[in-house]
Amino acid sequence: MLGSTLVPWLLALLVPGAAAQDVEPDRGFFGDVAFAGRLVVDDAAAVIASPFHMNRESALKLAGVLAIAGVMFAFDEDMTEFALRNDNDHPFKAVRRMGEEIEDIGLMGTTWPIYLGATTVGYAIGNTTLTRVGGEILLAQYISGGIRNLGKIVLGRRRPNERQGAYKFEFDGGTSLPSGHASSAFAAFGVLAHHIDRTWATAACYTLAGTIAYQRLTSESHWASDIWLGAVSGIASARLITRRHDRLLNGESDASVTIGVTPTGQPALAWTARF
Predict the structure, then answer these.
(1) Phi, psi angle pair for 247, to nearest 5°
(2) Are 130 and 118 in contact (CB under 8 A)?
(3) In this predicted model, what pLDDT tens digit does every residue of 83-111 receive, in sequence order?
(4) Which of 77, 116, 165, 205 is least surrounded, with the fewest CB atoms within 10 Å of its CB?
(5) pLDDT band (50, 70, 90) for residue 6
(6) Class of 2-273 in CATH
C-alpha cells in the first residue's frame, strides 16, 4: 500500500502547462525561502481570519454543510450498519477495496515526506507546477489537520470500533470527529483537481478520495458525519490555499484600502480583504 502514495504524483504529470512555467521574480535562494516563510504565515492568518469575513453566500454554504452533518449525525449508527451489511455486495465491495489500496494517502505522517520531496525537486528543476502542488498539499493538509486535531480534543467522540455508540463524547477522550484520513485525502486531491483543471480529472480525484472515505466507514474507524466534516474541511482548505495563491501569482492583492464617504457625508478609509 505504500506505493499508493505515488498516485498524486502520477496525476500531477497530467497537469497542463508543466513545461511552460509561470514567470516569477528572481529573488535568489534565500529570498525564495523568506518568501515561502511569509506565504505560510500569511496563509495561516487568512485561515484564522476567514470566519470573520464570510459573505452571505459563504454563510449559506456553511449552514448547508452543518445541516447535512446534523442529518447524518442523527442516522450515524444506521449508516454504519447499512455499510457493514452490504460490505461484500457489489459495487460496495469494489469501492471498499479501492479505498483500502490507497488508504495511506490519507495519512499525513506517511505522505508529507513525498510532498516535501516533490516541492524540493520541483524547485530544483524549475518546475513551478510541481513546486506549487507539493507545497499547497502540505499547507492544505496542515490547515485541515489543525482543525481536525482541535475538534478531536474538544469533542472527544468515540469511534465505532470502540463499541460505545455514536453519541459518546468526552473531552480529549476520543479521536473520531472529524476524520483525519478524509480531511487529508480530500485536501490532497482537491489541490490536484484545481491544478489539472479538467472535469474528468476533478471527478477522478474526488472519486478516489471518496473511496478512502468509504473505507473509513466500513472499517468502523469513523461515523459517517465524522467523514463528511473531515472531507469538507479538506476541500475548503485546498480551495482557500489554491485560490489565494492564484490571486497572488496574478498580482492581485488580498487586501486593499479605498477612500469612501460615510452616509453622513464624512470622508473615510475602507479596508477590504479577500479570503
Answers:
(1) -65, -40
(2) yes
(3) 999 999 989 999 999 999 999 899 888 88
(4) 165
(5) low
(6) mainly alpha
C-alpha grid cell for residue 194? Answer: 484545481
- Give exposure, 41-74, as e/b (b: 16+ Cβ within 10 Å): eebeebbeebeeeeeeeeeeeeeebeeebeebbe
> 99-103: which pairs have CB atoms within 8 A and are 24 or more residues apart?
99/211, 99/212, 99/213, 99/214, 99/215, 99/216, 99/218, 100/1, 100/215, 101/1, 101/4, 102/1, 102/4, 102/7, 102/208, 102/211, 102/212, 103/1, 103/4, 103/181, 103/212, 103/215
**Phi-psi map region of 21: left, alpha, beta (phi>0 left; psi -120 to 50 alpha):** beta
> Within 10 A of 89 (CB to CB), how many other CB atoms are there?
9
What angle (nearest 5°) sits at the alpha carbon of residue 189, between those of residues 208 and 78?
50
CA-based nearest residue to 223, from 67, 92, 72, 66: 72
pLDDT tens-place string over residues 103-132? 989 988 888 888 898 889 888 888 888 888
Residue with cell 468509504: 214
User: Where along the chain do its domains lie?
Assistant: 2-273
CA proximity to 274, closest of 259, 258, 252: 252
Q: Which helix (H) or strand (E) holds 207?
A: helix 199-218
Cα–Cα nearest to 197, from 7, 10, 12: 12
Of 252, 254, 207, nearest to 231 by C-alpha is 207
Cα dihedral value 241, 244, 247, 253, nearest 10? -150
182-214 burial: b if 16+ Cβ within 10 Å, else e: bbbbbbbbbbbbbbbeeeebbebbbebbbbbbb
- How far, in Å, CA of 68 to CA of 51, rounded? 19
